[in-house]
Amino acid sequence: MVHEVPPLDAKPTPASVPPPDVAPDGRPEAAWISRPVAPVAGAASGPLAGLRFGVKDNIDVAGLPTTAACPAFAYLPSAHATVVQRLLAAGASMSGKTNLDQFACGLNGTRSPYGAVPNSFDARYVSGGSSSGSAYVVATGEVDFALGTDTAGSGRVPAGLNNIVGIKPTRGLLSARGVVPAAQSVDCVSIFARTVELAAQVLAAALGPDAGDPYSRTLALAPAHWPARFRFGVPSLRAFFGDTQAEAAWDAAIEQLQALGGTPVEIDYAPLAEAAALLYDSALVAERYAAVRPFFDAHPDAVMEPVRGILAQGTGYGAADHVDALTRLRALGQRAAAMWAGIDVLMVPTAPTHCTIADMQADPVARNSRMGAYTNFVNLLDY
């Protein structure tokens, strides 16, 4: 495991981790789970000196409880997550722990006992998740940047819905040591900022291999140069679920890339969509259960719905089922790889639609599924 969760009898006493002080749904206070009296100070100098950042509360900060938005799960880490330590060493100061969909299981920001995080433009609407609080506090200027995680879109969807920058790094580029896993083999630590420049600076300070993370990799960043002419892939699937504004914005984005010298090339989205479906509709969902198995087996009622149902689904598969699902995923990856012969870059909508908190809570599974229509495949296929 990237993070060894202490046994239940070694966790903080209830007084150390009080019951959630729940903010009403859609209130700004819901963005934070905990904030220290004073920020955790970074180094006196460095490339990020003077900047403040927030940390999604499934990432360890020494001395502050890590809850993963589940108070009964909370533990008190004695060390910072590797990525937090690197940012502090670069001079940034840590302002607090942000709210999330429980166990990073959701793309909407309403699945938390600490309250539903509002959208920064209209509090009636969802922020996107699971890194809901991190996106909100960056969008509203409470911090300069924030850390999230991204397994199926959790670092991209809330960035898009709050009109900020979200970087979902290549798997293994940023250490996940000290991060509560969601689906450990495909988890990524993500970055939120208000500009691409700052997000890139944070990435440069945070990246690097870590022998303490079994999925860490030594990866070199290739120089990127914007060519005069390029080909960009456009999915054959146009799924906007009746959201005409989102569809119009997508068409405008295609026109913008054409104005920059791009030529749109339709790609077959079927293998990408089939890969995405494996995340929850196959034995791959067992990895979600495995991430918190000891806690979930002992305390299933401490997990809120629909997260509980998703984790429980993972208990129904055997090892052979998981092997079959992995083989199916590899086969879909081979099919999908053919598209790269005809394109230089793939463009997809971040989220195909947006909805209110009330609508999400009324239909939490179907509405959440729509949010991931164009994001779920990415980490599975190691893009």
UniProtKB/TrEMBL annotation:
Q: What is this protein called?
A: Allophanate hydrolase
List, alphabetically, the InterPro entries matched.
Amidase (IPR000120), Amidase_dom (IPR023631), AS_sf (IPR036928)
UniProt keyword list: Hydrolase
Q: What range(s) does the Amidase domain occupy?
A: 42-380
Among Pfam families, the record links this protein to: Amidase (PF01425)
**Species in which this protein is naturally found:** Variovorax paradoxus
**Which stretches of sequence are listed as region Disordered?**
1-28
MF (Gene Ontology):
hydrolase activity
Q: Which domain of life is it from?
A: Bacteria
